[in-house]
Amino acid sequence: MKEYPVIGQMLHNGLTTCEGCSMEIVARAMLDILGPRTVMLTPPSCSAILTGAGLETGWKVPSFMSNLEAVAAYASGISEAYAILGVEDVNVVGFAGDGGTVDIGLQALSGAVERGHRFIYVCYDNEAYMNTGIQRSGATPPGAWTTTTPSGKIGPKKDVVAMLAAQGIPYLATASAGFIEDFQRKVRKAKDIDGPAYIHVHAPCPTGWRFAPRQTVNMARLAVNSGLWPLFEITGHRFRLTYRPKQLLPVGEYFRSQGRFSSLDDSALDLVEKEARDSYERLLKRHEEENG
Amino acid sequence: MTGHKYMALDGNAAVALGAALCRVQVVAAYPITPQTPIVERLASEISSGKLKARYINAESEHSALCATIGASLTGARAFTATASAGLALMHEVTGVAAGTRLPIVMPVVNRALPSPWSLWCDHSDAMGERDQGWIQLFAQNAQEALDFIIISYRLAEDERVLLPVMPSLDGFFTSHTVQGVKVPDQELVDVFLPPYRRSKPYFDFNEPAAINPLTTPDVFTEAKRGHQVAMENVRKVLPEVFGLFAQHFKRAYSPITPYRIEDAEIILVCMGSMVGTVKHTVDLLRGQGLKVGLLKITAFRPFFKTEVRECLKYAERVAVIDRSAGLGSEGPLSLEVKAALYPDGPAVYSFSAGLGGRDVTPRTIEKIVKYTATHKSTQDPVWADLKGGVLD
Lengths: 292, 392
Fold this sequence. Notes:
Radius of gyration of chain A: 18 Å
Low-confidence stretches of chain B: none
CATH class of the largest domain in chain B: Alpha Beta
CATH superfamily of chain A: Thiamin diphosphate (ThDP)-binding fold, Pyr/PP domains
Distance between the termini of chain A: 35 Å
Shape of chain A: globular
Order of helices and strands of chain A: HEHEHEHHEHEHEHHEEHH
Helix content of chain B: 25-40%
Number of strands of chain A: 8
Mean pLDDT of chain B: 97
Largest sheet of chain A: 8 strands, mixed
Largest interface: A-B, 46 and 44 residues
Distance between the termini of chain B: 52 Å
Strand content of chain A: 5-15%
Strand order of the largest sheet of chain A: 2-1-3-4-6-5-7-8
Number of strands of chain B: 16
CATH class of chain A: Alpha Beta
Number of helices of chain A: 11
Oligomer: heterodimer
Strand content of chain B: 15-25%
CATH topology of chain A: Rossmann fold
Strand order of the largest sheet of chain B: 10-12-11-14-15-16
Structural class of chain A: alpha/beta
Largest sheet of chain B: 6 strands, mixed
Shape of chain B: globular
Radius of gyration of chain B: 21 Å
């Protein structure tokens, strides 16, 4: 049996995240790589639970509670100030959910990336505003139930990864809470980039997606193995898939093991599956073209 | 050695030179009329290498202030500047800068808030921030605009204070009018304003803490109280800093400045660039035998209530001229003066004038004085320069 190292020691125990929270797994895995010379920025969101309430904090590194739309703007100032002060070894890290990233935080993120400050931005994408009680975000996938899309979301999931690729960000990656070693390799790369680095982590949420907390990692793996959430990175302009499933699973198991997709019938799932396959095929082709 | 160079500068250039003399380390800004020339000039100072600092071309005023806050959290001396709608956009985070107790200096080049749109001066932008916990100073002219930047950093970084400062200068009247300005020598400024060093850093990697976290009802009131205590400390520290500034630079300032009030029956109260015109009109009216005086307000936050009361209590009548309307009530300066004089001070007459860049002329001020002299009391605020209004 494989031995796993003890991870996540840069966060205290006894946090008040939900049972089965993937955001917490991601945070612990991220800080294992970044280490103690890190400043964490969290907006009001699930990640703010780690920053803490009252006189308690979860992080074993300095942190600042940002405004929801402004994580990347705060990071800009911290990063440039450390540069002028001659402090070169501090990781400035924004850790925000999908709402704080693809909706209200998009302007600040795009601006900071365009200006080219050295900072890392990790988005844990649980596909809705979970901390306020499961409201739709731009990253909510089509058909998904939320409290503000009671009959299922109409319209696509906003693709911020593609937007940032179009901006030519020096390092860009997708990752998954079900593939921690892959995520940690990406964090290690992001840490060494002399400029902005962005990692978008698919982060299943048992509370908002309606599945059993013990299934979090399985759910994340199903999304990747069904071709719904491909794992890749773009360094400079070079695209590389970092994980290739031997054979893509049908999407049905992913969709039917959560409670939020009851608005989608089997024919809708057939369409989703076809789109996912086509999209994955395109990525595979691009990967082969760019990596020989 | 005079200790300064005498230069012809507008208020914006004076502010930019003031910031450069303070050796600011991070400037994060977004262009907005009539503030833009301040940050253009700083960008040029940084680009030429004369000022060793980082310039962040933020994509909005909101991000500009957030970046300034971020920079200040690391212990760098941080600067931004704004006006009008830009300040309104920052409103959410002006509270963060103040509540986190950061010594940021952010000049506001006063411009009316929409709607309707106006490019020109009034104080409605700064007044929107009056309860956010910033120190607010109002400059009368370009010299004050420069000096108040230097004074503001010294005040903000005092550990008894640790609050952001918003020195205001009137859009166009001060920001774009060229005046003679004494620009102090760098060596003198360096002595007055040593490099910023916090005794305890915010981001301490040995003793990590969460800054600005969610608080419970158990903590919030005491945090706010600490902020209020710092504001109260300004009443003591600001006069000290003004005194120290006078020793170094031979220019004396005060939180409030009376002019010819000793035997005055009517005292006018105002702030900003109109102070000069009011002073001139006071002299004119004194020539006509009217016993008129002026109280200039430099520090609006904190408001120097006791000192204001001491200056006004022997007057028969007080006429306050606000450069914002205080819609639904009356001008904010007028409310402050009434509160300072409650319950047994002289009658206070509330006027607004100069909205959206309308010139506050000696004629308008004369009308204000005559109205005050001839009316027993006034129930409503009087819009002094309204076309077809009571004074027209």
